[in-house]
Specification:
By secondary structure, this protein is an alpha+beta fold. It has two helices and three strands; from the N terminus they run E-E-H-E-H. The two termini are 29 Å apart. InterPro entries: Ribosomal_eL20, Ribosomal_eL20_dom.
């Protein structure tokens, strides 16, 4: 099994496609094994959180980033866990 890395996924999503179409830019940091997995995770999260179809999401860039550059400290802390502790 490979190492899990951090990826920055940037793109645009179409909000309100029927009324007043508007493209919103997004930047999302995710953990994944490969860039393809990172794109799949972003498509899934944006689709479920904003109720938009996958074809209304345009991925423009996927870049691997070091853990020091990830602004979400909880994501980095989760990556550094060695085991789960049951209460």
């Amino acid at each position: 099994m490979g190492d899990v890395k951090f990826y920055l996924v940037e793109g645009k999503m179409l909000i309100r496609p029927h009324k007043m179409p508007e493209w919103w830019k997004f930047r999302k940091y995710v953990r994944a094994l490969k860039p393809e997995h990172a794109v799949e995770k972003v498509l899934s999260e944006l689709g479920s959180n904003h109720k938009i179809k996958r074809y209304h999401i345009k991925i423009e860039r996927v870049v691997e980033v070091p853990a020091e550059e990830v602004p979400d400290r909880s994501l980095v802390a989760l990556a550094s866990l060695t085991r789960w502790i049951k209460p």
